[in-house]
Specification:
mainly alpha
Length: about 325
């Protein structure tokens, strides 16, 4: 999960192009009513807000899986991006004039990465359980962090993650659908691209303007695919309502919670908390979708979480900001 609008940190980028960490730079100025604006939510404490955002994302993902028989994976992605884009455009009211061609190129690339990340992830959870899907997806930003750090100790975290992946696949992915696993890994690669373009967009656009515009780009790109797969099913009131609920749980609410949390929470703590996403996803899959995990799969997920936390702490030890996870898959 990340804070896409402010793009707080990215250890995956070279130090010469890394934006300031939210732990050392002023919090973004957010207008009242915008995601992250002041309000009663801030009284829950920053750690509680981050964890609530994680829970919201993963239970939104579980709800999306229950919606797929009605609208299909592409249809669900289309509804989610469309509703989230409408909400963010209305709330943020981004300025359309005064931006350079490079600004627009960056926000379009951000939107493409966002759409691809969501599309691949939802194809994955249509085929494999939610917990393993998120665990495989986390490998994208983890690999980005390990490669960018250029420290020998990160070989340990990479090895730990690979052991977890090996165990998760039952020693060869015989227990997981191969296409589903491939889609999850592809979503992880797009998550890494998302991190890079989230940071660049955050430097070029104020407040949440870039996020709102990128979400609109993603919605425009995906809507034809959703219509082609599901047609008039997307206009069914129940289907649209459930799609709107997925958008709120998986996009709008987490953005708000995370922006509030990052005003008072060190970036390192934020990233460590985000490393718990695979475990929360497994819990959501169990409670909502009755997807149980074998003991070996639980150990595998724990190893990937440990590797992610270790990579984050290594980056903090170097004085670098950790890779920000995202809230949009």
């Amino acid at each position: 999960m990340s804070t896409p609008d402010a793009a707080p940190t990215t250890s995956s980028l070279p130090s010469s192009s890394s934006p300031p960490s939210p732990a050392t730079s002023p919090a973004p100025s957010v207008p009242p009513g915008a995601p992250g604006g002041p309000g009663r939510l801030g009284s829950f404490g920053p750690v509680g807000l981050v964890l609530a955002g994680c829970v919201s994302v993963q239970f939104g993902g579980a709800l999306a899986v229950t919606l797929m028989p009605r609208a299909g994976a592409l249809g669900v992605v289309s509804l989610r991006l469309l509703v989230a884009a409408i909400v963010l455009l209305v709330v943020c009211r981004p300025r359309l004039r005064g931006h350079s061609r490079a600004d627009w190129g960056t926000v379009v690339a951000f939107g493409v990465a966002m759409a691809a990340m969501n599309g691949l992830f939802y194809q994955a959870v249509d085929r494999i359980p939610l917990g393993p899907a998120v665990t495989l997806e986390v490998l994208g930003p983890l690999a980005l962090s390990v490669v960018a750090s250029r420290r020998a100790v990160n070989a340990l975290w990479a090895g730990l993650a690979l052991v977890g992946v090996f165990l998760l696949g039952g020693g060869g992915f015989g227990s997981l659908d191969a296409a589903g696993a491939a889609f999850a890994l592809g979503a992880g690669a797009m998550w890494a691209a998302y991190i890079v373009f989230s940071a660049r967009t955050g430097r070029r656009f104020p407040q949440a303007d870039g996020l709102a515009l990128a979400m609109a780009v993603g919605a425009v790109l995906f809507l034809p695919l959703g219509i082609a797969e599901s047609g008039t099913k997307l206009a069914d009131p129940t289907t649209f309502g459930l799609g709107a609920a997925v958008a709120v749980l998986s996009s709008v609410l987490p953005y708000t919670l995370e922006l509030l949390a990052l005003r008072r929470l060190p970036a390192s703590t934020f990233a460590v908390l985000m490393s718990l996403e695979p475990a929360i996803a497994a819990l959501a899959g169990f409670l909502v979708l009755s997807q149980s995990l074998a003991p070996l799969e639980i150990v595998a997920i724990a190893l990937v979480i440990a590797a992610s936390m270790g990579a984050v702490r290594t980056q903090v030890g170097r004085g670098k900001a950790p890779v920000p996870p995202r809230v949009d898959a």
